[in-house]
Design goal:
The chain is an all-alpha fold and 142 residues long. Helices cover 74% and strands 0% of the residues.
Length: 142
């Protein structure tokens, strides 16, 4: 009879191999597209930042997240937000209510509250603006 620990070890190894292969094949199929979308989103964020402030960057991303339903869109909007926020005119009040990145409970509460106020109920909105605590923390350093 096979010992339980060997069976568990074999199943864990199989899981790791399958996970690696799934990511590998996903990247082979979608890597070029994701890279292209990332570059386009950063360019669009930089262009938007030339004529808008940081608050407008956040508001635009929240609004655009209404129709965002897949991973590619989420990655695109996160890159847009990051580039736009870093290059836009400073908005001192945009980070006033944003919790610290390490404060997980308040961060979740803040993102959900922000998306609900905008009447956006999909999970991608909170996932996208979850970048704000890190962006605000970086803003405070400079």
């Amino acid at each position: 009879m096979i010992k339980t620990r060997y069976l568990v070890f074999a199943l864990a190894a199989l899981f790791l191999v399958m996970t690696f292969l799934s990511f590998y094949f996903y990247w082979q199929e979608n890597g070029a597209l994701l890279t292209k979308e990332t570059e386009q989103a950063r360019f669009a964020g930089a262009e938007f930042a030339k004529t808008h402030n940081q608050q407008a960057c956040l508001d635009t991303v929240i609004e655009r997240s209404q129709t965002c339903r897949d991973t590619n869109c989420t990655v695109e909007l996160k890159n847009f937000l990051t580039t736009c926020f870093e290059q836009a005119e400073k908005s001192p009040a945009v980070c006033d209510q944003v919790p610290a990145p390490a404060d997980y409970i308040n961060k979740v509460s803040w993102t959900v509250s922000k998306c609900r106020k905008a009447k956006i109920r999909n999970g991608n909105c909170t996932n996208i603006i979850n970048e704000m605590p890190l962006l605000c923390e970086q803003e405070m350093r400079f």
